[in-house]
Specification:
By secondary structure, the protein is mainly alpha-helical. It has three domains: 132 residues, Rossmann fold (3-Layer(aba) Sandwich); 131 residues, Alpha Horseshoe (Serine Threonine Protein Phosphatase 5, Tetratricopeptide repeat), CATH 1.25.40.80; 145 residues, DNA Cyclobutane Dipyrimidine Photolyase, subunit A, domain 3 (Orthogonal Bundle), CATH 1.10.579. It has 20 helices and five strands. The chain has a five-stranded parallel beta sheet with strand order 3-2-1-4-5. Helix 1 links the parallel strand 1 and strand 2. Helix 13 packs across helix 18. It is globular. It binds flavin-adenine dinucleotide. The site of flavin-adenine dinucleotide has 29 residues, from helix 9, helix 11, helix 14 and helix 16.
Length: 463
């Protein structure tokens, strides 16, 4: 009997370094390709917002469109399901006599449950799952998942000494796709409840898709050599160049961590090896660490008490939560970042640290609300990177003072850009607007005593 494979794309929207695709092409007589949008992901949640908001939708749509083009260029065609994998995949199986399904292995409960449901619905199909998310393969690290260390250092050093990332899989140049596939256009925003205005006004920070991802990788390395200065620029907040912007592409798998690693190694050999090249790989290792640590603790990483089961009395003031979400807290460094997030689906790491720390330690709102809001908005939303970073802000890390940080990182222009009410204000006014009469901008929820030194320091410069 002929072996007909279905390649089920999920968060691996690429042709390069894609083991599921590579093996399917190697092992099957012919292939069908699909991606399934899960309609219920766009439903409103208890907290009043969608699980996946419009910038994430648009970015994903761009990535799917790009994948379809790239597959077509090498003999494949992408079927896009509109409602759920649970509907599209059984339908394809029946219509096309598929015998085998190839897909990336999942690591978090919601995604695992969905994959398991598909498996259970199709008892006669052979499933082949492949690990593809991390830089170091899950089977190569010197720890069982149940024993992933509690500190990053205890993870990082043994991994770095005992393990090498595997070589990336080659991009297929000729796929034996089934020729006559009935297919539809890629579903549009209205199918998921977005309005024309919402969709039209949404502007993800970067364009989605493998093509844009590979261009970005080339740009950040060999073309601009920005990578050489990464170590010193990475803490800024605005613009495309201070950090790699690989995260949105990694989140949907438009690029693989191994592909980035191999480019960095090439860059080290041909252009420059320095603290910056080391640091970029270090960040990818962080991403791995959070993935594996998240797997170790399972659903406890989504719980208010966290995986340490700690009791903290949260105040959970809904009005404060709303002001934080909208970027109207009256603290410019926080508001500028939150407005940037709302408009572009992206926020710098500096911004994320400050907004999360302020949320947890000053507003004293349950950290899972903040993490859920980031999940809705971030085009680079990644289960473990998001929830583990929030968990760390809530339980493990020191307080970050947003007034001090706005001064330290010279955020004046950034604030003027994202808060139009402050766009013509002086360098001092934009950092501590409550000290002046600026009626257009919200008065702060609270100005804390612990900020006094930072405020004085900012005002001293004015004297
Ligand atoms: P670069 O500085 O260029 O770093 C290169 C890559 O390293 C990133 O693309 C990312 O994959 C990885 N990386 C860097 N920092 C971290 C980190 N702290 N944790 C894990 N991986 C990291 N990152 C996400 O990818 N998705 C998220 O949902 C996410 N949520 C976050 C929530 C909070 C509260 C915080 C504090 C951080 C979060 N991060 C998240 C981590 C980090 O902020 C982003 O990865 C980074 O800002 C992305 O921009 P970049 O690609 O230019 O990063």
């Amino acid at each position: 009997m002929a072996k007909r494979g279905l390649v089920w794309f999920k968060n691996d929207l690429r042709l390069h370094d894609n083991e599921a695709l590579f093996r399917a092409q190697e092992e099957c007589d012919d292939l069908i390709f699909c991606f399934c949008i899960e309609k219920k992901d766009f439903d409103k949640q208890e907290l009043g917002f969608r699980r996946v908001d419009v910038n994430r939708f648009k970015f994903m749509q761009q990535a799917i469109l790009d994948l379809r083009k790239r597959l077509e260029a090498v003999g494949g065609h992408l079927v896009v399901g509109e409602i759920s994998a649970l509907e599209t995949i059984p339908m394809l199986i029946e219509e096309y006599d598929i015998t085998d399904i190839y897909a990336e292995e999942e690591y978090a409960s919601y995604e695992i449950n969905l994959a398991n449901q598909v498996v259970n619905t199709l008892p006669d199909i052979n499933f082949h799952f492949f690990w593809g998310k991390t830089l170091y393969h899950k089977d190569d690290i010197p720890f069982e998942i149940a024993k992933i260390p509690l500190t990053s250092k205890a993870y990082r050093i043994p991994v770095g000494t005992h393990t090498e990332p595997r070589t990336a899989f080659k991009t297929p140049t000729n796929l034996n796709g089934v020729k006559k596939i009935k297919t539809k256009k890629i579903p549009t925003y209205s199918a998921y409840g977005f309005t024309k205005d919402e969709y039209g006004n949404s502007k993800p920070l970067v364009e989605g898709g493998e093509t844009a991802a590979l261009e970005r990788l080339e740009y950040y390395t060999f073309k601009s050599e920005l990578l050489t200065g990464y170590r010193w620029s990475r803490n800024k907040s605005d613009g495309l160049d201070y950090s790699s912007k690989f995260s949105p592409y990694l989140a949907l798998g438009c690029i693989s961590a191994r592909e980035i690693y191999s480019k960095v190694k090439d860059y080290e050999a041909k252009i420059k090896k320095n603290q910056s090249t080391w640091w970029l790989v270090f960040e990818l290792v962080w991403r791995d660490y959070f993935t594996f640590k998240g797997m170790r603790f399972g659903n406890a990483i989504f719980k208010t008490k966290g995986y340490k089961n700690k009791n903290i009395e949260w105040e959970n003031d809904p009005l404060k939560f709303e002001k934080w979400c909208e970027g109207n807290t009256g603290i410019p460094f926080i508001d500028a970042h939150m407005r940037q997030l709302n408009q572009t689906g992206y926020m710098s790491n500096r911004g994320r640290v400050n907004c999360a720390s302020y949320f947890v330690h000053d507003l004293r709102i349950d950290w899972t609300w903040g993490a859920a809001y980031f999940e809705a908005k971030l085009i680079d939303y990644d289960v473990s990177s998001n929830w583990m970073n929030w968990h760390m802000q809530a339980f493990e890390i020191w307080y970050t003072n947003p007034v001090h940080q706005s001064n330290k990182y010279k955020a004046q222009d950034f604030i003027r850009k994202w808060i139009p009410e402050l766009s013509d204000r002086s360098d001092i006014e934009v950092l501590v607007p409550w000290e002046f009469d600026i009626p257009a901008y919200p008065t702060p929820i609270e100005v804390y005593k612990k900020w006094s030194r930072a405020i004085n320091l900012i005002q001293k410069v004015a004297v």
